[in-house]
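[job 0417] fold request received: RHD domain-containing protein
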Amino acid sequence: MYQIGINTNTMQMNNNLLDEDFQEETISDISDIVNYTLTLSPSMDSPDSVILSPPPSHAYVSEEAYQPLLVSPGPSPETQDITPYLEILEQPTEKFRFRYKSEMAGTHGSLTGRKKRTYPTVQLHNYDKPAVIRCSLYQCNKKETIQPRQPHAHRLVKKRGSDEIDDPHEVDVNINSGFVAKFPNMGIIHTAKRNILPELESKIKKLKSDEIARNEGLIRSLSRREEQEVRGIMGEANKSIDLNIVCLQFEAFEVKNKIYYPLCDPVYSSPISNLKSALTGELKIVRMDLVAGPVEGQQEIFILVEKVKKRNVRIRFYELDNEDIEIWNAEAKFSDLDVHHQYAIVFKTPAYRDLDIKNDVKVFIELQRPSDGARSEPREYIYTPSNRIPSRKRPRLTSDDYSTSSNFPSNEQPPIVISNLSNLPAAQECDYQRPLGQDSTDPNELSLEIQKCLNSLTPEEITEYLTTLDTDAPQEIYQKSVTIMKAQSAFIPFSYTSHPLRNLDSEETKIITDFREEFLAFVKTNPTKKRMSMMLKSLFEKSADVSGNMETVLHLLISENNQNLLPLLLKVLHKYQETDLVNMPNIRGQTALHLAVQCHNILAIEHLLCTKADIAVQDLEGNTAFHIIAMENAPHAILKLLCMVKDEHDHINMVNYDGLTALHLAVKSNNIEATKILCENKADVNVEDKKTGDTILHVAVVDQRLEIVKFLLENSNVNITKENYAQYSPFKLANLLLRKNTPITRQIYKLLEIYMAKFKENQPLSPDDVKEKYSKVKIFTEECLDEVSEILDKSGIWYNLAELLGYDHLVRSNIFASSKNLLQFAMKEKKSIFKIRNFLENLDEFDAVECIDIMVLGKQK
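[job 0417] inference complete; emitting structure tokens
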């Protein structure tokens, strides 16, 4: 794969490797220009001035991507008290939109500092006379060489009225200002390729003229020889230029007779990257088609991304421990051909570090850009075990394993029992207490009851037996759930609302018959509790091994909705608390609880839960019992029953391998009752779909679920402003869907609009909201005008305000006697109140800004 060298002075690129995407961003060599270098600034051999500030975790910059800038932070310790030097107090923001000339007609954001409401700021130390500090736009080399830095071809402009002022920008400093220079209201204009050389020539000529003036003590035009030297430097600067990364150069001068004499070495800011460039813009994974896959890797995944360069992007998998320390990483496999038009990538997952994992492992996926080390926000990915369902070896038990003093009758042969449960999954504790009366019944008494039941072949006798055994039923959960069911009927048969999943084949029917016979033969021996437990395990293992789908007899009985043997088996399993047996999965990863939910068999679910059936077990698609309920549109009593289980580990919010929670599925299936029950039981309404970042409100809006939208807005703490991976909030999606022009889309939009208005009442106004309110105000009120004028007259800042408004020539002509005259003139000239407010904010005149905000907004922001 083509890579960009990150340890050299510039990005090394072979022209014959450049595709059409790179040709758009790269300037070709100028072969006919003399490669002559002229030193225009002091040597860059002094120590570092600025160490790059740590970027956000999602935009990591590697140590090698940008080396510490080789500029002077000041003198050595021996001369620190006497030598002037510059210090950068506030670095510029790391990413900023470089705009084209055609985009500069309107009002756009200015270059800010890294902190809120700040601008690039420097301070001159060890100097006590008036000075001038300049700010210019320069190239940002990845490593310094013996060559000095060169100006950048892009323009650093300031708006002054309707005029654009190019760099260098100057600020006068003195003892009153603390020798601090702040540079607000600057923007970066992207220079078109055809104008690169003229722009560089203009800037380098200016530098050459300044150097000659310092050396000769006079200002003059360049000679032909000097212009030839400038063209040579221009050619070198053009070769190394990176159109998507710039930096600021700050210089301090003493000015004599309009000649600028440097007081110290210049300092350079940290890099400023073009926010909308594929080479330097923000990396982002917008959507993934899969969020889980096998531990061996090689799974093909499609992702949608923000604009990337095919030869300058990697996909990195990594894992963090409990301390958030990275313990593993690997790169996905893809080629340049797998990057589609800079917005989609198809790749294959790497193998995980341990191929023998027993449980799912959560890792993260991120995009990484080699040229500057930038990273995207990570997305979650799940590695699943290669063998989710462990194989069961069945060593033959010895006679000692099941023999006791109570032997089989002489005319009966002991059943063949084989058991090994060492690989069974551990049970998950739940909140259900041991049923009342469980410990009061001797195991031998239960065996006699089982014999009595099994010796009867009629359904009526089975029903009678179950009635007598109800005293041993799971009391706590039984009473809660049956109360729900008995509201409609005084007698509830076991088959209430349940239905078979499928018809069993002859082999599966034989498994049930064999189980019944072997179990009956064993019960006649009046076994102890220990031997009964061993026998149950043996018979379950045997049925699972014989079945083609690794289904135990319990799976089969639930699947056919058996009305005779299933009720008895469930009570026996509950009596002996055979948790491991009820949690045994079939070949699809489904436990008896999964199947009972699919069958809508509420009484089976009751007994399974009281036998500590694990609600967190996921099938091969990652679905828990909660997911099945939401997908199958199961009776609400079943969901309420499941929600009674103590959920210390937040299982209600587990995501399946499609990245969805049960709540997502309930909304997608328009199951408003399930949605309500899940929300009432603390399901997280703001959990993201791991593929798209959608919350359930996003889903409800897109799928036009009007009643669910109403419920979520009125009865939950749903975040109505949360954006998905594509940066759409539910309100933005509703606005887009208005194009359908249907009654439901309009109603949903109106609902969200109302709640957005309520939300904004208690939130600080956004910049767009502030701008909209200011657009309706054209003049100052008399009260506000007097207050602002008084503030500006005291501080003297109004002279600076006049300069920003383009009235500095009028100030020099003494046209304005006070700030009030200035503001009145500005209103007469129809200057924007919003622009005046922002200028004052840039000048740190916050008291005046507050007065204007109160006038326009009616309250403080």
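[job 0417] notes: The chain is about 35% helix and 15% strand. The two ends are 51 Å apart (CA to CA).
[job 0417] exit 0
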